[in-house]
Model the fold of this input.
Amino acid sequence: MIASTTFCHVLPLVVVAAAMSGCAAVPREAGFADVEALAADRGIARIHWNQGTASDEAVAASVRQMLVRELAADDAVQVALLNNPALQATYEDLAVAQADLVQAGLLTNPVFDGAFRFREGGGDVSFEGSLLTGFIDLFLIPLRTRAAGAAFEAAKLRVTGEILDLTGRTRAAFYEVQAGRQLLDMRRTVVATLGVSADVADRLREAGNITALDHAAQRAQYEQSRVDLAAADAAYLAARERLSALMGVWGREVNWTLADRLPDPPAQEPPLDDAETRAVARSLTLGAHRQELVAAAQRAGLSHPLATLLAGEAGISAEHSPEEGWGVGPAVQLPIPLFDQGLAKLALAQAGVRRARQLYAARAIETRAAARAAAIQLRGARERVDHYRRAILPLQQTIVEQSQLQYNAMQIGVAQLLQARREQIEAGARYVQALRDYWLARADLEQVTNGHLPRLGRPARDAMGGESTAGPAGGGGGH
Done:
């Protein structure tokens, strides 16, 4: 039987253990307010973290209201920011990073080690126990906390970068849908125009007024236009699905509509000469890498060879025997760095610092190059749009008008008149491509000057939906 006095003496050890273990809760907001501020500074008015609160339904209702009206580019972006599940999953990175920060500031839990010994034949019970904790770990808590704090700040910057990335991709997808819709309409006009030309060629062939070669050429153009129409229709529908995925909609919600035409470029362009300076100054990517460099340096401090000694434990040891009663005193456990002196861990940590430093330099170079490239792309896209509007489209209109006059004077046939009209439509399609490329280049420039490194090397597409070998971005469709 264990004496009650034994329990009374052991109880204080348990109380001390509970007091030393501490208590720390992980805040629910996890730095989201800081992310909201960073996003607002970059023109993003509203984001929401779905955490099962009463405000979630209000956000869902606002998304449904936006989807039933004709969407503008800003509306599509807002739906994506509130409704995209992948972005919601990214917000959990904040919770993970903050939990790591809280954990870094905690002492290790104390360990109670006890043994009871029962004497043969009965009698009193001997007890031996100790309560140990790594309170020498206090020397490491500041380093751990600074490392975790830097990682937390990097997580906020990375999450904000993901918000900007989704914004840019959604805006680009929106423009591709709009362009795809216009190109699809133009393809339908081409099919109708060549269909009339093919019918005329059929009648002329029956009358013997054109050769078999000319007749076959007219029919081949018409049949090819029907294939191109089917391809443009498929490209348009695929572009709608890409935008639906970015907005996080499915089921009946995919029946959203938007304006049929791409807007004209604004009268004034954003400043381009200082794009590189603004991109570096506001770069979230560089900010995150800077914090990761700080975290790596702090982890290198944690890997110092002396840290193997700081992993020791200290506490209280108690012993009770029937003959001598209770004895209480300090207890220490220290690892002996005989085989592992921490040199490998130190080398690993130092390599992490060097790696973080080089990654920071690499991202700085990429950011500068991305800013210059985005400015060049926007300037070139604007020049192409303006050239189409000033020269090419008016010339094509003049060709059609003159062809109509010559047709009325019976100087050319209907096939030539229809060919002039077809070439005018094709020029209009190339103008739509140039206009789409302009808005995509503008979206890229906004991203990089707002602090996010955009995805470079987006493939260009020709005016009617196929991939091209030159020029920026492309594809698409929309209501």
The longest strand covers residues 125-133. The domain at 31-106+140-262+286-305+342-375 is CATH 1.20.1600.10 (Outer membrane efflux proteins (OEP)). Confidence is low (pLDDT under 50) at residues 1-22, 456-479. Residues 141-206 form the longest helix (66 residues).
